[in-house]
Write a structure and sequence with these properties.
single chain; alpha/beta; TIM Barrel; eight-stranded parallel β-barrel; 12 helices; Pyrv/PenolPyrv_kinase-like_dom; pantothenate biosynthesis; methyltransferase
């Protein structure tokens, strides 16, 4: 029997056990109660309340504008809809990079007010003091290496990261450091599959890949991308399981037609 089917409530320890047992970990984003309820009912192991809410929920070009208060609101909404999954919430840009004290304050707010089970932050050695401060306070931390969207203006592109030897070596070093600091998992975003395999085999904590190939210990996608609500976003790593954009716009068009023609509401739909 798999760890997935045995567990009634997923914890950070569950994810460690899944890696040990070589059972893949599943992760999707959610930003609201209704979506979280459906994703959780579908059997997902981990839900990420991602700062990608800035893109898919608010329409911003990057993840940078979203605030801690807004992320806490999204986390609250998601937690109310979840019975089983582990809920991890992103700390947004500017809430942990400047100093460890601010990082801890942000993480505490996300746990106390947002109700999250863990936080995720981007970066390696550069933010090690903030990670250590948060973990020492008893708050679980998921790391994030590779393409880190909060640093997009530093990178200047969303292309694959760590293709060059120097950056690849730093990524491996950072992954080992995150493990040493006590992170329970690390997201690897948009890096070569062979490098992701090397990292996954070099550390004992689970790796969760997005655009990082099949060798990570788990996979994560943005829910809105996976179900086809975003029609224009078509990266190589994305597999669409539905085409909700077409389904929803079609349903709306039919509703408009039915109301205009006085077909809706009919006698059965009236009191």
């Amino acid at each position: 029997m798999s760890v997935h089917s045995e567990i009634k409530k997923v914890t950070t320890e569950t994810l460690r056990k899944m890696k040990f047992d070589k059972e893949k970990i599943t992760m999707l984003t959610a930003y609201d109660f209704t979506t979280a309820k459906m994703v959780d009912a579908g059997g997902i192991d981990t839900i990420l309340v991602g700062d990608s809410a800035a893109n898919v929920m608010a329409g911003f070009e990057t993840t940078l504008p979203i605030t801690l208060d807004q992320m806490i609101y999204h986390a609250q909404s998601v937690v109310r809809g979840v019975d089983r999954a582990l809920v991890v919430a992103d700390l947004p840009f500017g809430t942990y990079q400047s100093n460890p004290e601010k990082a801890l304050e942000s993480a505490v707010r996300m746990m106390k007010e947002g109700g999250a089970h863990a936080v995720k932050i981007e970066g390696g050695k550069e933010i090690s003091k903030s990670i250590k401060k948060i973990i020492n306070a008893g708050i679980p931390v998921m790391g994030h290496l590779g393409l880190t969207p909060q640093s997009i203006y530093k990178f200047g592109t969303y292309k694959v990261r760590a293709k060059e030897e120097a950056e690849a070596e730093k990524l491996i070093s950072d992954a080992k450091l995150l493990e040493e600091l006590g992170c329970f998992s690390v997201v690897l975003e948009k890096i070569p599959a062979d490098l992701a395999k090397t990292v996954s085999e070099s550390i004992t904590i689970p790796t969760i890949g997005i655009g990082a190939g099949p060798h990570c210990d788990g996979q994560v996608l943005v829910y809105h991308d996976m179900v086809g609500m975003n029609k224009d976003f078509t990266p190589k790593f994305l597999r669409r399981y539905l085409d909700l954009y077409t389904e929803i716009t079609g349903a709306v068009a039919q509703y408009v037609k039915d109301v205009k023609s006085v077909d809706f509401p009919n006698e059965k739909e009236s009191y």
